[in-house]
Write a structure and sequence with these properties.
elongated, single chain, mainly alpha
């Protein structure tokens, strides 16, 4: 680490090494060479004047990228692809004349970038399903624990701690579906030439369209056998970048929602993220247990979810067959979006795997609000015993206001049940209130909804991707 220059914190603090390596120059330039080998070998197979010895020489040095030499050449050429063509030619002099034959820079640029994005999506998928797996365990464990549900951040009806977790899971399930759609639509640029017409390859093969099409098929087969875009300009469609960043933004939105909920619940002392023995919450206030992991998730997620508009502008301003104002921008935005979300999901795995629930606090908060929620049930019991519904309603409204005044103005406990118990108008429920005001009677189908949702929608995903499970998220700082 060079302390004299700026270091990208996405690499030094947040993203995993695996994701950082995926976007490394080493991987990128090695893919360029693999593409050049695939092109030369396929051109040889289809009859161009390329020898097996030349192809073997290229293969011999396929993984020996001399980045320093290429950087020197780039200072002279101001062109990164041609600099690497020269550096490769120096290592494989017998094949120098056939490297990059008929191709444009975007043959290696675009195809390699697409393959890197594809691999990055696989890394995201692995973490996504592991978060789902950890939330599943949490949701099932707490599916029966009543808790206050909130609308407008005001106490509403009861739900359960596990049911709330299914809302986080459902967001991620939607992201998973979007990811599968994105992967199914994945295509390589293929072998298209300078403006996408394949004119240079038509020249090389003397106008033989079948050979030009076969060349593309063979090259792509050697690079993984993915589908190819039927038509392109000089680059692959930049709208694909928008689709990718929109997906990443969607996952960031889901993570932001989860982390925001955990931060609120931590403030209420109901649920907390993991807090290690030696962890310091505040430099000034030693007692504090700040939800720093969830806050970091929110912080990084905010960055990722803001990026699709950048890709949208790039896609919409690609004049005619291509303009180069996409290049410098994309070097930053695509990689950093993945690096940031990698950091987010790493924390998400860590937090979901170690959430701490405080049932006593939750029960106390439920008890403080449940009497108000139970008034309709109490009223109905009294009506069934012969009471006047309108008179009972007015009386219970008066008692509720008195209990609320005591809580808000005097800081006392909610004594509504005591007031009702002592009121002769509610004699029909005297001695029965504890049974009526049972929190588990007020959660509706929350427990069964939780179990059904996991069985019907989450388990099939986890079963399909069981080979990816078992990963944990490590927080290093």
């Amino acid at each position: 680490m060079d302390e004299d220059i700026y270091e990208n914190p996405l690499v030094t603090r947040y993203a995993t090494r695996k994701m950082a390596e995926n976007f490394s120059d080493k991987k990128r330039f090695t893919l360029w060479r693999k593409l050049w080998v695939a092109l030369a070998e396929s051109e040889m197979e289809l009859g161009l004047n390329i020898t097996e010895e030349q192809v073997e020489e290229l293969k011999k040095h396929e993984n020996d990228v001399d980045a320093a030499l290429a950087a020197e050449y780039e200072k002279e050429t101001r062109h990164d692809v041609m600099a690497h063509v020269r550096a490769y030619g120096d290592q494989a002099p017998g094949a120098r004349g056939i490297i990059h034959l008929g191709a444009t820079s975007c043959f290696v640029d675009c195809n390699s970038e697409l393959l890197i994005i594809r691999d990055a999506l696989d890394i995201i998928e692995e973490k996504l399903v592991n978060v789902l797996d950890k939330l599943k365990t949490f949701a099932l464990r707490y599916k029966d624990l009543p808790t206050l549900g909130y609308t407008h951040l005001q106490p509403a009806q009861l739900t359960t701690v596990g049911k709330r977790a299914t809302l986080w899971m459902q967001d991620l399930e939607m992201d998973y579906v979007n990811l599968q759609n994105l992967k199914e639509s994945f295509k390589l640029r293929g072998v298209k030439g300078t403006t996408g017409t394949q004119a240079s390859f038509m020249e090389l093969f003397d106008g033989d369209e079948d050979k030009v099409k076969e060349l593309e098929r063979r090259v792509v087969e050697k690079m993984g056998g993915y589908p190819v875009y039927g038509v392109t300009g000089q680059t692959y469609p930049r709208k694909f970048d928008y689709s990718v960043l929109s997906f990443l933004s969607g996952v960031a939105q889901s993570a932001y929602k989860f982390s925001g909920d955990i931060r609120l619940l931590a403030s209420m002392k109901e649920v907390e993220e993991p807090f290690e023995k030696g962890q310091v919450g505040s430099s000034a206030m030693a007692y504090k247990r700040n939800p720093m992991r969830s806050e970091r998730m929110s912080s990084l997620s905010r960055y990722v979810l803001s990026l699709p508009v950048n890709a949208a502008v790039t896609a919409s301003t690609q004049w005619m067959e291509r303009t180069l104002d996409d290049s410098a921008n994309r070097r930053i935005v695509v990689a950093q979006a993945f690096l940031a979300l990698d950091g987010v999901l790493n924390i998400y795995m860590n937090v979901a795997d170690g959430l701490v629930v405080y049932p006593g606090v939750i029960e106390r908060r439920v008890a403080a609000e449940l009497p108000f929620m139970a008034t309709e049930n109490i009223l109905m019991e009294c009506v069934k015993a012969g009471g006047d519904r309108q008179e009972l309603h007015e009386r219970i409204r008066t008692l509720s206001r008195e209990a609320a005044r005591r809580v808000k103005e005097e800081g006392g406990d909610n004594n509504l049940l005591e007031l009702i118990e002592a009121d002769d108008m509610f004699g029909a429920v005297r001695g029965k209130l504890s049974g009526i005001v049972d929190a588990k009677k007020f959660v509706g189908r929350a427990p069964s909804q939780t179990a059904e949702f996991i069985k019907n929608e989450i388990d099939p995903i986890l079963k399909e991707r069981k080979n990816l499970l078992g990963k944990t998220g490590e927080v290093n700082v």
